[in-house]
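Q: Could you fold this chain for me?
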Amino acid sequence: MSKKYVVLGAGMQGVAAAYDFAKFGDAAEVSLLDLQAETAKKGANRINQLLGRQIVVAGQANVTNPDEIRGALHGADLCLSAVPYFFNEQLTRLAIEAQCNFCDLGGNTDVVFRQHAMHEQAKAAGVSIAPDCGLAPGMANILAAHGIRQINKPKTANIRVGGLPQNPKPPLGYNLVFSMEGLTNEYFGKAHALKNGKRVEIDTFSELEEMEFPAPIGRCEAFVTAGGSSTCPWTFAGLLDEFDEKTIRYPGHFEKMKTALDLGLMNLEPVQVAGKSVVPRQLFHAVVEPLIRNDDVHDVVLLRVTVSGENEKVEFNLTDYYDERAGFTAMQRTTGWGASIVGVMLAHSQVEKGCVRIEQAVDSNIYIEELLKRGFDLKIS
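A: Sure. Below is the predicted structure, expressed as structure tokens.
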């Protein structure tokens, strides 16, 4: 039976997910909703033109208006949230009320645990809720879980992942291809990990390491950021000695951003400036975002997941580039499609009911098959 999908947010990731639902999700209809009706219309028209059929319908919706969202989700099989993470707790509650399966791009583990507190309500409503389904958290965590299941006595699991411009430019060698709020949410706060078998909190922008990738990428750096490990440190506590996740950037990015962090430019406590209250992080967003968001959308996503045991090791390597034909960035493909694959599985009742941890509940064999179906260059060794 054909499915009805709803995507909240017609930004880059929302449009990518809506396209994927329409192409691979056995969709009867995909509703692409945004606060800005024109943005949704532009995204829907683009997808319909790419697919050569009218399947995506644009609409206006305010995610802060419960009645609008309930109405939008009525009769839908799956809702994907492609709006900032801080809306996901309320959207989860509304999806349960509407008896609609739900997944999101996530990125904030505190919000995820508040979603998991609704497990019994979701189960009673007969729906599946799957937070943190993008790239990392999301794809990387599912691959890590797959590797852990392949090894007889797993000991360590390490995720290294990042989206980079193919043509890096000053001042940070970085081009923003998703929300500024999402970026600074990853950069600020505490990361969750397993060290020596115990769950620990680690400061972001710590544990700098160097990595090497095949040409033309070459040398990169990786460091601790928040949110990417999601619930895995809780899930694998008692099984693994070590689980961590780090973000990949070009050399030099760490030092520059660490200085901004140390100077308090990402703090949320207001300060007084010329008699006015100013939130440093909001000021940082306003000043820095125009400098790191440019028209050159040619990007690359690097993902390396390594799981090791006593005598075994499995490694997943995925390198994805901007899609010249369809015009999707690598970050759109890996994040938006990473989430939509889980969404399709939810809509087709391939995931248990309730609010689930994707590393436990998502069938990684099916997930990997779907990645390959979409043309991802995933190498498993």
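A (continued): The first strand starts at residue 3 and ends at 8.
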